[in-house]
Design a protein that fits this description.
GTPase that plays an essential role in the late steps of ribosome biogenesis. It comes from Fodinibius salicampi. Associates with the 50S ribosomal subunit. This is GTPase Der. About 30% of the residues lie in helices and about 20% in strands. The model has no long low-confidence stretch (mean pLDDT about 90). The chain has a six-stranded mixed beta sheet with strand order 2-3-4-1-5-6, sandwiched between helices. It is globular, with a radius of gyration of 15 Å. It has five helices and six strands; from the N terminus they run βαβββαβαβαα. It has a single domain (about 5-160), classed as Rossmann fold. The protein has about 160 residues and is an alpha/beta fold. The protein binds guanosine-5'-diphosphate (GDP) and magnesium ion (MG). Magnesium ion binds near residues 15 and 16. Guanosine-5'-diphosphate binds near residues 9, 15, 146 and 147.
Length: about 160
């Protein structure tokens, strides 16, 4: 079994875009045991001689009670349980939201799995500077990236594979 990295965060921060960048042309495996809206996407990634599996998760919404968001939440917890490292994705174009704070609280409950905070959409210098506001979430390590243009992704991966 390869080590597992899961990508977690509220909806629309760019989790699936990051997932696609990490797995590249390799194909995602869809575990449809969980149903169409809650399925889990697995893919294999490779960096600096390390192979690892990546899990893309649905957008985490802690307080919604409808069956679909409850299903996504359950699926996120399953992904976190099997992860060696969590990429906690936030959006430095939108800035901090209360949902980010709720996800942070949920992740801090699990003290064992290392979390790398990843402010995405840091497409340029200005956005990268804005990412500093996310230090408030209380995670030691932050790696701003742009999943679209690739900025910062090499540094993130260099660090990530040292934790596997
Ligand atoms: P998810 O809901 O977290 O999986 O987010 P998606 O991957 O579906 O992306 C949500 C939106 O953000 C899409 O319109 C993406 O094109 C956009 N997006 C993702 N990554 C970036 C990025 O690095 N920069 C910018 N500017 N937009 C991004
Ligand atoms: Mg997605």
């Amino acid at each position: 079994m390869h080590p597992v990295v899961s990508i977690v965060g509220r909806p629309n921060v760019g989790k699936s875009t990051i997932f696609n960048r990490l797995i590249g042309s390799r194909k995602a495996i869809v575990d449809d045991e969980y149903g169409v809206t809650r399925d889990r996407h697995y893919g294999e990634s490779f960096w600096n001689g390390r192979t690892f599996n990546v899990i893309d998760t649905g957008g985490y919404q802690p307080d919604e009670t409808d069956i679909m968001t409850a299903g996504i939440r359950e699926q996120v917890h399953i992904a976190i349980d099997e992860s060696d490292v969590i990429l906690f994705v936030v959006d430095c174009e939108a800035g901090m939201t209360s949902l980010d704070k709720s996800v942070a609280r949920m992740l801090r409950e699990d003290q064992e799995t290392p979390v790398l905070l990843v402010p995405n959409k840091a497409d340029n210098d200005e956005r990268t500077l804005n990412a500093a506001e996310f230090y408030e979430l209380g995670f030691e390590e932050m790696h701003p990236i742009s999943a679209i243009n690739g900025r910062g992704t090499g540094d993130l991966l260099d660090r990530l594979v040292t934790l596997l």
